[in-house]
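Inputs:
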Amino acid sequence: MAQVEKRVPGTERIQTVEMRGITKRFPGVLANDKVDFDVRAGEVHALLGENGAGKSTLMKILYGMYAPDEGEILINDTHVEIHSPTDAIQYGIGMIHQHFMLVETLTVTENVALGLPSSRGLLTDLDAVSKRIRELAQVYGLQVDPNAYIWQLAVGQRQRVEIIKALYRGADLLILDEPTAVLTPQEVDEFFATIRQMVAEGHAIIFISHKLHEVLAISQRVTVLRDGKRVASRETAGCTKADLARMMVGREIRVMPEKPPAQVGDVMLELRQVQAQSDLGTAGLKGVSLQVYAGEILGLAGVSGNGQRELAQVVCGLRPITSGRVLLKNEDVTGMLPGELTKRMLAYIPEERMKDAMIQQFTVCENIILRDHNKPPYAQRGFLRHNIIGEYTDKLIQYFKVKTPSRDTQARHLSGGNIQKVVLARELSRQPRVLVAAQPTRGLDIGATEYVHNRLIEERQKGTAILLISEDLDEILALSDRIAVIYEGKIMGVVNRQEATAEQLGLLMAGVKEELTPA
Amino acid sequence: MIEDLFSTTVLVGILASGIRLATPYLYAAIGETFGQRSGVLNLGVDGQMLLGAFAAFYVALTYQNLWLGILAAIIVGGLMGLAMAYVTVNLQAQQGISGIGFYLFGLGMSDLLFQKLLGTVETVRGFPSLYIPFLSDIPFLGDIFFRQNILVYLAYLLVPLAWFVMNKTTLGLKIRAVGENPEAADSLGVSVARVRYFSIILGGMLSGVAGASMSIALLNVFQQNMTSGLGFIAVALVYFGGWRPGGVLLGALLFSMVNALQLWIQVKGIQIPSDFAVMMPYVLTILVLVLAVQRVRPPSALTKPFERES
Ligand SMILES: Nc1ncnc2c1ncn2[C@@H]1O[C@H](COP(=O)(O)OP(=O)(O)OP(=O)(O)O)[C@@H](O)[C@H]1O
Ligand SMILES: [Mg+2]
């Protein structure tokens, strides 16, 4: 089997890793400001902070992707220089990125073997590698088919491949950047079992998450960053959610928003027996019927991959319908293009915001007017009016509290949470009558989540019909007036919020149907 | 006249020359496959071929040694590849445009050298036909397959070899990964630059040999622009072949068979205007590309320069 030669000074394995006084500047941003951070073998150290606090940056420095402007790194009390991921790997550091680093057209085994010396010299030793993958999978509960291609795998499985990749390279320290953001609750449980196993075997883990209950459940220590500075570092035992939230945001956070009673109006959005294909060409939606009324939030609950994505795309004109009808305020809009739907005041906050909601190389300004770039006041006789666009953008940046060096910063340089705020600003400022929000708070810190929740409720008060698609059951329960559950492309049932319980919804999400009082 | 077309001798003749004519396409397109699988589109193939063709011809003529000619073509093609690699990998130039630049350079330079060093069209005694014992005596098949020159045989051997390198070696794995997702490969310590350099230089060397196969094995002359765009067809064949050596072989054969037929029609003076005959392979390329394009996805990072953030 291929093994990476380790250059850890002193001992064989990583006992401690220490980052001292790390400072990193980007144009216009101080991403890390003299941060101290350390992690030991056999513990999970959680890293908390709002969007843009500098968590990913700090970890990328440890993994050799960014060079720090100041500060030093010590492994087992010896100073080390980490200039590239290769160096990091050789020291026994592995990182699982917020955005996966997998080659989709290669198999699991090929992805793991990539870049490693082979026991057969110039030839690949894929059989040996896949045997070792099975062993690792066995020990750590990371079930995945070594011969599957990455493009065939669901998100949760891809993540297992990333972990296997790191373990295979003999990683003693694993950096996990928001690993649970894309997992279903069941997958999170399995994932935590894997982490506990790794810790028991003497691995060190750095765990980044915005979900405070996860941090409390899995970590022994927690460090909080705010605006690039370390503001706290302590034992997790004895901390409460409220403590953590206060340290992160510097103020009290109401975890669940307050909601005035709904003022329900007419049907604004209606789906009648809609069928559509999934990306793989299989049946994605198998006859979905739904109604969303003005002034209500209809929550669509379900385990990921049961047709939520297809449903959102169908409503927004991004996916063809094979049969059935879609109506916007009693008008048949089946088969209309997104542009025509935009004119009818439909707004969409897509799940894959990096890909579907933004043009990464465009500035914040340009992204803000993406939908209305050809209309006055932003354009006149075919020319963009930059002053007006700029002022408008500044207003939204302020109103939506987007953290960006300037309105002319490219979207790809913003942190995940702030990208989401830009999308939100664009879509909500258009005064929509129907809003489709898919996973609107995924990857957002608690402050931003609270903010988005409040904005959605505000929209509801204005009489907007909101279809909220979320895999986070707590979010669904907190915001919805009615809850629909989707399973394998079919609606299992629709219940009023007051009558819904988490247990009952959980059963429906798993495809178990009981007698329900229709709402 | 028309019945002539279908007599067995004629058919054997057309098939044999079809097999032979595929040679330069195979070298050039297999080389280009490596480059494209690593994410670099090299449109300078034709220029590399022309310089390779001239280098091989000149060295073979001067030193009366054909293998020395091949070596010269490999070196010249490799140097062209090195330059292309520097421009696209280090300077991150737009690949299509710089490829065209290299094509024009090769076209002009080969002609200049030809004028200065030779001046007139001369001929060499190219690689002779190599009869494979026993096999060459099989009726029909022997004539078609086993009475070719050594460069033809090597071209066909290159196909399984390229497949093997691409799919069974660690190097091939790296090439495929770098062409699909250079960020991922980089994060695992694979040097994107080194892999691309290797692939482009290898492509250049094979293009050089492709040129040599024309000037000292098939035609045994050197003329200005003797490839007449063959290198561009080779690039098209890579798309047609779905970036797989086997597919490239299929495309090269299809193309060269039509070419052989077309040549024969011209020789026979059959009643089709010769311009139409000459057009046939090119029209076919366009048709086939239009039909083939949906089938396979190109490497995701094709034509995209890679730069690590810092
Ligand atoms: N490559 C870059 N160029 C310019 N600015 C950057 C770059 N990477 C990050 N930043 C900025 O540095 C700050 C810290 O970003 P970082 O990605 O570390 O935040 P984070 O804590 O991981 O946030 P999130 O929870 O949203 O992922 C942000 O303001 C971001 O805009
Ligand atoms: Mg981050």
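Chain B touches chain A at residues 168-174, 176-177, 180-181, 183-190, 300, 308-310 (CB under 8 Å). Flag for discussion at group meeting.
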